[in-house]
Design goal:
alpha+beta; Glutaredoxin; Glutathione S-transferase Yfyf (Class Pi), Chain A, domain 2; 2 domains; 50% helix; binds glutathione; Thioredoxin-like_sf; transferase; Glutathione-S-Trfase_C-like
């Protein structure tokens, strides 16, 4: 298998982080230069079906191009440690939190960076008002998570899961514009530092 990847991009980092948690080392990594537009060539689009990274090319040539679909596929092939839930209830809870953090935290954080960082202008023209709106949205959800994390270590269950990976990679992308979550969200910041301290977190940076 081959993973089409871009260093420092947040969606591929989800996959690389999951691979590190599971100790997956037998997937070839192919770097795609987004700023040079390599993902927009007809060769890449014809192969992958979308101008995005990550994409996982299977040995039979099939390409899967949504980060969470790739993560779920790898979870099936490499079940331990479990990151998506062991039974129906856990799977539903983890899915619920993964979808929430993706929609209300990670996506607005990614848009904040995308509409701010001058180096990303080849992908998106900087728009400070769009960036500010998205940063405020993300911070509103950080407050929700701060309350949730007051008496628990991880977002979805009593162990680290894909929901933590999706949330932490989204917030961490803010580092490109030197973004720091509000200091008074102490539980949220404690959780973020704990995620960052995992040796596996470095796999995606
Ligand atoms: N929902 C997709 C999003 C993929 C995505 O937007 N990837 C970004 C990099 S993090 C990308 O390829 N951007 C290229 C562009 O916007 O032109 C996923 O989770 O894989």
């Amino acid at each position: 298998m081959k993973l089409y990847d871009t260093q420092r991009a947040p969606n591929p980092r989800r996959v690389r982080w999951l691979m590190a948690e599971k100790g997956i080392e037998d997937i070839e990594i192919v770097q795609v230069d987004l700023l040079a537009g390599q993902h927009r060539t007809s060769e890449y689009r014809d192969k992958v079906g979308a101008p995005h990274v990550p994409a996982l090319e299977l040995d039979d040539g099939t390409c899967i191009s949504e980060s969470l679909a790739i993560c779920r596929y790898l979870e099936t092939l490499y079940p331990e440690p479990n990151l998506f839930g062991r039974d129906a209830r856990e799977q539903a809870e983890i899915e619920m939190w993964t979808r929430r953090v993706e929609m209300y935290l990670s996506t607005p954080m990614m848009l904040t960076v995308r509409f701010t960082h001058p180096a990303l202008a080849t992908l998106e023209e900087p728009k400070p008002e769009v960036a500010a709106y998205n940063r405020d949205s993300a911070e509103r959800y950080m407050k929700v998570l701060d309350r949730r994390l007051a008496d628990r270590e991880f977002i979805a269950t009593d162990r680290f899961t894909i929901a933590d990976i999706v949330a932490a990679t989204g917030v961490d992308f803010g580092r490109l514009i030197k973004y720091r979550p509000p200091e008074d969200y102490i539980h949220f910041n404690r959780w973020l530092e704990a995620c960052r301290a995992r040796p596996t977190a470095k796999a995606g940076l």
